Amino acid sequence: MKWEVVIGLEVHTQLSTQSKIFSGSSVAFGAAPNTQASAVDIALPGVLPVMNRAAMEKAVRFGLAIGAKINRKSIFARKNYFYPDLPKGYQISQFELPIVEGGELVIRVGEAEKTVRLTRAHLEEDAGKSLHEAFQHVTGIDLNRAGTPLLEIVSEPDMRSAAEAVAYARTLHGLVTWLGICDGNMQEGSFRVDANVSIRPFGQAEFGTRREIKNLNSFRFLEQAINAEIQWQIDTIEDGGRVQQATVLFDADSGETRAMRSKEDAHDYRYFPDPDLLPLEVTDADLDAVRADMPELPGEMKARFIDAYGVSAYDAGALTQDLHTARYFEAVAKLSGQGKLAANWIAGEIAARLNREEKTLADVPVSAERFSGLLVRIADNTLSNKLAKQVFDAMWDGELDADAIIERDGLKQVSDAGAIEKLVEEAIAANPKAVEEFRAGKEKALNALAGQVMKASRGKANPGQVQEILRQKLA
């Protein structure tokens, strides 16, 4: 490819406070329209905003987690623009001096790691919501969301593919939910992604003209939208056209991006300090309190998993991508004493099953206690891997533990040497051609003989013993 892709993401994370950022109104999702909008939220004359301390603490927690600079004094500004669901005619945000500056996030794409730099994370209020489909010929305005606290997290343009952008968004999603500062519910809008995408010829230092794809609320749509936008920009330039800076929307049905409006720059918003809000100050006591309440971070837990459970760095990285996975793995590893086996199964069978059913590990129907029982039976050779998968499927769809399923379905692995030896002798006698091929140096012939033994035992013979006895008999 002669084009290099340049991507930066702006992620709006809804902070998991009980009330809004500048009022005492509830932020609970799903209330009837306009029932959670106070006088402050709808901007009645004379009302004044009051800063929510919990929002500040959650922003500081995020800054500490990414190794960023916490500005001890940050400024709220008025970002001026007109939109029907913005009651004041401006949004209270942070511009020149945000609460969090810098920091970085390490992402994994396949087996490769990459560090993405962060520009800033700033506090702001959300706007309301325009409802276009609920009415004919008019638009409804629901101001329940107006004033909901957001932390807007802005990356540097360090990503070079849709896959890297998705890896960054997933890692960031995992971190904010890990820290407990956001519930991460993308369907409800708690984690929304805007993607700034441009292209430039390889080797060119100057960035191309970017277009911003707004309000992507799933990782799948994020990847599809970026790839569609990349192709559109390449086609436009190669056909002799020019890319104009714009805000675009992604149409999931057509798989295309379409321009919504020309893209504004900072000066278009006429930012100025909000006269109703004092500078936000973070004291030494504030920092100490947040640090004392910080959970073990993913990088720290990754190193501990490698040391305590003997898993590889790659597996430890995968297991610490989100808190649900990390906690599930650790519970299983402790109960079963089988760290490597637990890692393999979580990354393999469990991940595959969850992907097919479009679920996350938070929804896994097999408890850590039940799953650890299965791993114990694999480790003590009660079950072969093939039989273990049968037991796992039954556990997934029912409530019995591994031992009860093994007993009910007669799935205990045969490890009796005498019984296996008899089956081996029968297989050798029935397959003289395979015996001849193995003795002629064809290793695959041994697998064919082992397969016959496993078939005769209905999958219950211990595979390791089968191979060992076959080699003894054929030596």
Automatic annotation (TrEMBL):
InterPro entries: Asn/Gln-tRNA_amidoTrfase_suB/E, Asn/Gln-tRNA_Trfase_suB/E_cat, Asn/Gln_amidotransferase, Asn/Gln_tRNA_amidoTrase-B-like, GatB, GatB_C_1, GatB_Yqey_C_2, Gln-tRNA_amidoTrfase_suB_CS. The keyword Nucleotide-binding applies. PANTHER family: GLUTAMYL-TRNA GLN AMIDOTRANSFERASE SUBUNIT B MITOCHONDRIAL AND PROKARYOTIC PET112-RELATED, GLUTAMYL-TRNA(GLN) AMIDOTRANSFERASE SUBUNIT B, MITOCHONDRIAL. It comes from Microvirgula aerodenitrificans. One of its GO terms (molecular function) is glutaminyl-tRNA synthase (glutamine-hydrolyzing) activity. It catalyses: L-aspartyl-tRNA(Asn) + L-glutamine + ATP + H2O = L-asparaginyl-tRNA(Asn) + L-glutamate + ADP + phosphate + 2 H(+); L-glutamyl-tRNA(Gln) + L-glutamine + ATP + H2O = L-glutaminyl-tRNA(Gln) + L-glutamate + ADP + phosphate + H(+). Keywords: ATP-binding, Ligase, Nucleotide-binding, Protein biosynthesis, Transferase. Transmembrane segments: none annotated. Allows the formation of correctly charged Asn-tRNA(Asn) or Gln-tRNA(Gln) through the transamidation of misacylated Asp-tRNA(Asn) or Glu-tRNA(Gln) in organisms which lack either or both of asparaginyl-tRNA or glutaminyl-tRNA synthetases. The reaction takes place in the presence of glutamine and ATP through an activated phospho-Asp-tRNA(Asn) or phospho-Glu-tRNA(Gln). This is Aspartyl/glutamyl-tRNA(Asn/Gln) amidotransferase subunit B. GO terms for biological process: glutaminyl-tRNAGln biosynthesis via transamidation; translation. Its EC number is 6.3.5.-. Heterotrimer of A, B and C subunits. Residues 327-474 form the Asn/Gln amidotransferase domain.
